[in-house]
Amino acid sequence: MNPAQDPAVVAQGLTKRFGHFVAVDHLDLSIARGEVMGFIGPNGAGKSTTIRMFCGLVTPSAGRATVAGFDVGSQSQAVREHIGYMSQKFSLYGDLTVAENLRFFGGIYRVPQQEMAERVAFALSMAGLEGRENALVATLAGGWKQRLALGCAILHRPPVLFLDEPTSGVEPEARRKFWDLIHQLAAGGVTILVSTHYMDEAEYCNRIALIDRGKLMAVGSPGELRTRELGGELVEVACAPLGAARTALLTAPGVVEAAIFGDKLHVVLGQGGLTSETLPDFLQTHGVQTGQIRDVVPSLEDVFVRIVSRAQDARSAA
Amino acid sequence: MNLRRLLAMAYKEALQIWRDPRSLAIALIMPLMQMGLLGYGVSLDIKHVPLCVYDQENSQLSRAIDSRFQAAGWFSITHVLHSQADLRNAMNAGQCIAAVVIPVDFSRHLASTGTASIQAIFDATDVNTTNIAQGYLQGVIAQTNAQIQAQWRAAHGVQPTLIGQVNLQPSTWFNETLDSRNFIIPGVVAVILALVGAQLTSLTVSREWERGTMEQLISTPVTALEVMLGKLLPYFVVGMVDAVVCLGLAVYWFGVPMRGNLVTLFAATALFSMVILGIGYLISVRIRSQLGASQIALLVTMLPTTLLSGYTFPIDQMPAPIQALTLIVYPRYYVTILRGIFLKGSGIADLWQPLLGLLIFAVVIVYLAARAFHKRLD
């Protein structure tokens, strides 16, 4: 093992092509030990492919990656000994009971026999499945299945965990419980890369990596991303008609972004142009009636919309 | 290779077989069904061939001949006819597949010239049955001749002489009762093992792909070899148990003579199981849908076993190119060994060639199977 200060996961120029389609495009990423890194992006952005490359399941077309100090290409067996993985699709054995699944993965990961009972008991209590050891897994509800899958993935106490959309399709209450577990594990020093498309979940992460069309768009803590990436002050404008207002604002001086957000507009006001005060008059000249204007703490969703649309602008300009 | 991981894999697979009604049915009920069906249903013997008799003479002698046909056990006289038209109708209606016509001057001709003819007519749409029935009929006539000659000599005071007379004394070895069941049933064991082994294993990998459990499995440190051996071990046990049941039924239920060495028999059975399981596993790795895997398994195991192994159709009788082809039809080696051990009591000295053939197949197939599976998604 490498010294403790080395990052748990490193990707350098990591690339995966399927024919002409570039699923992951020169991705550089570093995840520190004990960090919870959120992996955010739309479906098909390359999140799963990246995680699978980290797990040694998919061979990179170019670039390299190390996990827990081992190269994912040449040392994939060692990588597998040091990781836990939850695939996007539920993948425990439905025709086996809760306890049988846990013991199976315990055996596959060679959990020492004398510790088996204790670790299975821990996984059961973590998943909230005490007393249901003999239930067939196929009969469990979604949230329990996910927590059991997490239990199976950590039986061998891996230093690095890869969770691919672990909470998709799970009810909100169960999602919250799941995130509590993730933080418990991280507090114990486990490095976790977790992908999600729920924006609220991004807030629970130490850092976030935004990926779109195979490219890493931004990395940082939720706070950093808000201030750095937005490029101005976010205001919410109640006005009508929305479409005309947006079109007008996009060409107005100092407006960084204008996006329809429900029945209102979210407008990012940069330096040296329109302000909250001058905005109603500007819209009036374009035939738009303005209602209330208020400052908004930008959500991460605002940040991502901003980053993605900036990339789109760059692409269409090129 | 790690024994702990292998056993974890094998135990999981055994639990899955136990909980899957379809697998259980294939493993436990199918062999019994097949044994019953093939043991009772497949017979190359012909008994109670429906026979019509048109006795134009109706004399004491002709009636004696009629009853001889009946008494031989091979024929059942279904109709006694009275005209040529009846005969045609009976044949057309399929009431008989053989008919005997005793001419009106039969006895008189025999008495005056010493010879007489009986006409035999066959429905030859089924050539095989016709040939066999013809053989049986000639047997009955030969017996009748012998008796008539003996009576004639006795009546004329001539001592029977053996000079110038050749008597053929047929002697059948290995299957003294000429019961085709003794020939068929040892081969049935091969058919059942092929069917059960390949059907079960062909699903073992594709099931994991279809249910999405494979991605989790290959993210663990378990090696490809451990996956293969762990998965095949329970099926090997099932196959050997099925073999014991089938061989037991063959000997104790169907009364097939068992004259050879049990150790050789089980060594050959183990080798054959390995080939079958290896093929099932190879298919399972290559074909990711359960349905496709199951059908291809049927094609590459059942077809050669039933058609080209010599199980029903003797290899000696096949055209030369097909005979050459059977050299790569692995069940032929096992069927040869089974028959040799069961009926001839052959030992390793006699069976080393088919045993070697089976061993080579086992090694090659298991090697290919071990290399076929990769712990990658791309």
TrEMBL record, chain A:
SMART domains found in the cross-reference section: AAA
Coiled coil (residue ranges): none
Enzyme class: hydrolase
Keywords: ATP-binding, Cell membrane, Hydrolase, Membrane, Nucleotide-binding
EC number(s) per entry: 3.6.3.30
Entry GO MF terms: ATP binding; ATP hydrolysis activity
Transmembrane segments: none
Start and end residues of each ABC transporter domain: 9-238
Domain of life: Bacteria
One Pfam family here: ABC_tran
InterPro entries: AAA+_ATPase, ABC_transporter-like_ATP-bd, ABC_transporter-like_CS, P-loop_NTPase
Listed Gene3D superfamilies: P-loop containing nucleotide triphosphate hydrolases
Name of the featured protein: Fe(3+)-transporting ATPase (ABC-type transport system)
Organism this protein belongs to: Thiomonas arsenitoxydans (strain DSM 22701 / CIP 110005 / 3As)
